[in-house]
Amino acid sequence: MENKSGKDLIREIHHIRSGLDTNFRDMVVEDIYKNAEQIYNHSVKVLSDRKYNLDQKLDRILTSPVWGLPIMLLLLGMTFWITIVGANYPSELIARGLFWLEAQMALIMQQLGSPSWLTGFLIHGVYKGLAWVVSVMLPPMAIFFPVFTILEDFGYLPRVAFNMDWLFRKAGAHGKQALTMSMGFGCNAAGVIATRIIESPRERIIAILTNNFVPCNGRFPTLIMLATIFVAAAFPPTLASLAAAGSVVFVVLIGVAVTLIVSWALSRTILKGEASSFTLELPPYRKPSILRILYTSLIDRTLFVLWRAIFMAAPAGGVIWLLANVTVNGQTLAHLISGFLNPLGHVIGLDGTILLAYIVAIPANEIVVPTILMIYSHASTMLDITQLSQLKALLVDNAGWTLLTAVNLMLFALLHNPCSTTILTIWKETRSMRWTLIGAVMPLGLAFLVTFFVAQFVRLVF
Amino acid sequence: MIYYLILLIFILFIVWWYWTREREHERKLKRVYQEDALKYIFHQNDHGHPALFDGMKGSLGMNGTHLTHIINDLQSRGLIRISEQGMELTESGRKLVIEIVRAHRIWETFLQRETDLPLDKIHDHADRKEHELRGEKLNALDAHLGFPKIDPHGDPIPTEDGHVSVREGRVLNEWQEGQEGRISHIEDEPVPLARDIFNRGFRVNDRVKILKNTDQGMQVEHNDKSQYLDALTAMNIQLQPIERKEVPPKRTLNDLKPAEQGRIIYISERLQGLARRRLLDLGFTPGVPVKKVLVSSFGGDPTAYEVRGAKIALRKDQAKYIYIN
Lengths: 462, 325
Description:
The complex is a heterodimer. By secondary structure, chain A is mainly alpha-helical.
């Protein structure tokens, strides 16, 4: 390919380059903008300022010192409330349908002459795990993401980032992390993907690594259940539901505090040298477009996350069935392993069964509680107990749970390692073994540390 | 029992991991020693005399046998020539050293622009990286940075074909009271002095005015601040005359009042890399009008500016680099 004229050209390029100003890139950008400006002046006419003035007014209200925070809390609180309340009924419906299907399929398999272990593994194991995750996960996500996307489409979310930046700046993070955290309430994997809006590498990694500290839809039911049984029970009935809600909010606040503290620590230690910049675009307010909302929230987010979760949950269902049904010396694997884990569990104020449930539930946190209940009640498949008194009897009288167990389980649920979908997403987003490993191990270490100290403290003092 | 077994396996794993790392490290170290020796000879030759064995021993901190090995290796690779006067680089040796220097200075420039490492740390980082960065990768990095001509210390970066331009400037101590110049070079060693200079805010290309010059030290004006430099520190800074007699702008975006409009003059040279690119991409280019439209109610930071019809929020610590009139 090399010929004389090519060499001459390269020499000339070198020659010109050595005479260029150091920031000739600036000039290139400047020139592009000048061109765009010319085209704009030539072809765009602004007829009225009305829309602009309205935007200014809205901005002033939404970021005002008086109304800014209340409006934010109201809108985000409403989003969560709609999600939790609205998801209840469809969840139950889907669960009923899918579990009815489970019984039918088991029946058909039986009639076809399949051995009971095969039916058990495939239907009561793999299929049930899958059905469980779908029924618990799908409705909240299908509600949360569209509602959240309305706020996004309207243009409100960047204003939240603008309002909250002072807090995140102090923690060495980016204001947009407020948004990725909110997204994390829906699903941490989606929250990790959402960090793409943060253009600065250091702040983006911080947002990725700490997203796990906001409890996602899959962990909320655990928190609500514990709050209802253990915390609310300590209050008179009139205050019970308020106390339960209050304690869940309190746990979420702990999560936010941990996020800020860990962000602060990360930005001053392992992320110290990474590049950092802050720019935040405040787009004009727009009327949300329903079609786009449905598309981005259902196809891009809900189905995307659900598909990955199903992919992970199916094998977990199989493993859980094996744990409950394979026996060695008359004891199920589940009991053997939880017996083995018991000492470790005791040190952090939990027990072996809970730890085992958390190990098998790495693919999907939704199945933690059903697995715990399965092992405690010696059942052969995961189960759900809806009667609170029954649930309480099993956990307190049978398994010996105390308030300490409940508190530490809440803390553990909040802080422990992200689910495998999220870990996989961290890998896909960072393409770095290091960040993936830190993203998985750091929360787990923190969870053990915090629950350990709480357990030791409580045992020492009370 | 089984706990101990797990612990044992874990310890064995750590030991194995550490061992393989050490061996890898050793291999790299040999190359580092050789190249450091070459660099020493280069600098001696540059000052006009051959390198001597004893001087080299002291400067590199090696024992005699080890150094003999290294010198023999270098000679057999045809990188150095040994005569009765001492050691000199051959043509290929010189080429290699210039590439190492190029790698060092390009890496320093990269670290300064694209990361947040403190400036006094980048010299050490580059001392390690210069032995790894070569060929295509180095050229790609050079291109990515826009073919920088000087590194953060003001040293010229050799071009791909080995051309090294000459640095201009005289040490600060030689300048007269009342004179004004632009920093052309900040010596990277000794490190504590370089750290002190960087921490006090001095950067290459900054303007400095000499207020007082005595044998013990000097008083200079830098960024509207009067600073005292002792004679030794001042010797590590070089100045060159200012070519253009422009008056430096004083006002930045942070000085705008709410709803006030200003016109951007330029973005400070201090802001480089990602942050600079972002601002340019968003339209903060010289000559464009910028209006302060929204101030955060929580501490006044960030602030939103209207630029080219878009509303962009910036933090104060970036806005202070954008000069306006």
